Every structure is written in structure tokens, then in C-alpha cells.
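During the reporting period, we have paired protein sequences with C-alpha cells. One record among many follows, to show the layout:
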Amino acid sequence: MVNYRYLGNSGLKVSEITYGNWITHASQVADEAATKTVHAALDAGITTFDTADTYANQAAEVVLGKALAGQRREGLEIFTKCYFPVGAKGPNDTGLSRKHIFESINGSLTRLGTDYVDLYQAHRFDYETPLEETFQAFADIVRQGKALYIGVSEWTAEQLREGHALAKQLGIQLISNQPQYSMLWRVIEGKVVPASEELGISQIVWSPMAQGVLTGKYLPGQPLPAGSRATDERSGARFIHDFLREELLVAVQRLKPIAEQAGLTMPQLAIAWVLQHPNVASALVGASRPEQLADTVKASGVTLDAATLAAVDEALGDAVYSDPEDTYTVSPKTRLS
């Protein structure tokens, strides 16, 4: 079964493995298959579920809500997000303005079939809206009981500091950041993590398997596997592109004996690796088939010894992305529409 960790400097516990439905529900897999994977997650001990209004343009929230219908609400931690264009994608159907935040949370609650979400997240930083406006809206949502806690996604260290200060002034808790993080993508380690540790903010990390590259199925010098994420635009092929460099794929193959020595599969090693970091509260995983979860959840509770961690670093060498300046390029400078 899955272990639990506290999320940030709060009393909220989340499962070390969070089930996320980006690029799967209402897109990659049929609704019936999506429901089966959600139920498999529950059976494996996962109680934390992450989605966003932008996933499949709001449809993914509907699928998740139906899949969770009938479950004891108090036994679940449900997260969603807002920022990216949704619905008709008009000029106010995006960003972190007060108008869009309120319309987004109300829509998300309806689609998810719940009165509140445990964590409401700013999906990116909005350079076109005053931060005071955004956090005042968040504070009002918390006081109305529509969200219990506030989080963000892919914010820089400076943005986290500003947001945390405003949240504290308004009497609410900013407790999490949701960045990309894996053995191959470590850009948060230089600035974001130290700031987060100081502020009491946890990381809920997405793509711990580097878009599937850390499963080892993408072989150097070989065609991309048929039906894989790299060959399917619906599955986020554009996100995996940077991880398909020949030298990187060669480095990943060097992880196989390390995983075997640790008694783990490659996916389990990838997830266990991110969970070794004390600032990581949970690793986000998706699944298109229930059996995928049966493998990945076994990474919860695994302790990797110092020799294994050193072997991973040696195997990957210069293939790792670690420049903290890359954290400043994620949020769009202007709203998308």
C-alpha cells in the first residue's frame, strides 16, 4: 500500500503517489478504461487525485468526478488547477484574474461533483494580473469553503516568496508547488527547492519518469515504439522531444543494472528517486491501464541507499538538465488565448 506525507507546512496528508489525469482521461483512453484505472488507484491505496480544468478542455474533470462518485469524500484528496484557456477560450477564459478564478472554481466543482477541493492550484504564474488580485480571490475561495488549501505550479523561487507573503497576510496557506522533476530534469534543485524548504512549501512533482523515457523503453538508435507517447500527439509527444537525444537515451540504458541491483523496475526506480527528496510530498503518475499502477505504486516506501543514488548520478552524467534558469521559462509572459 501507499505511504503518506504531509503537504507543506500543513496538517494535510497526501499519498506519496498521486494519480493525475493529464493527457489520459477524455483524450487518450475511453471513459470506461479511465474509471478502471481510477478504481485500481484506489485499490492500491492512492487517495490523492490531481486534475485541471484545461485537461481535455474541462472534460477530464468530468471523467474523474464520475470515476470517484460514490467514494467517501472525506477519504479523498482532490486537487485541480486554473490558468490556461478553457471553454470558448475568450479573453477572460484564461489567466488568474478574479473573474476567471471564480468562474473556474465553480465550474471545476460542478464537473468534479464535489462541494470543495482539497487543493486549488494556480497552473502557472500570470504576469498580466496583479498578484494581490489573484491571492485575494484565492483567500475568498478558501473562506467560502470551496478550497481548503492553495498551491501553485511551476512558479519560480521569487514568485513563491511573493505568493507566500501575500497568502500569510490574507490568513490562508500556500502549501505546494507542482513542478516537473525527475532524475533527468532537476532544475528546481538550485533555487525553487531551497526557497520552498524555507517557506514550508512541498513539491508535488509531475513527470517523475521524464515522459516515459526513464522506463527504458526508448532505445538509442532504434525507431520509436509504436503506440508510445512519443508517437502520439494526444499523449504529449511534444513534451518528450527534448528527452529523446541519443546521448541521453544511452545514459538511461545505464540505469537498468542499477534498478536490477536495487530489486526495482525502471519505473519504480524513477519514482523512488524523486521520493528520496524530503521536499517532495508526492509523485504524480498517470496510467492508461490499471496494471501500470500495480507496478508504480511499489515505489512508495522504498529507500535508496547512498551507493544507489551515487550510481544513478554517475550513469546519467551530463545528460541531466539542472540549470535553475530554466525555471524562469515555464510560465508564459502573456496569457494564452
In short: Residues 4-329 form a domain with the TIM Barrel fold (CATH 3.20.20.100). The beta strands are 4-6, 13-15, 17-20, 48-50, 77-82, 117-122, 147-152, 174-177, 202-205, 280-285.
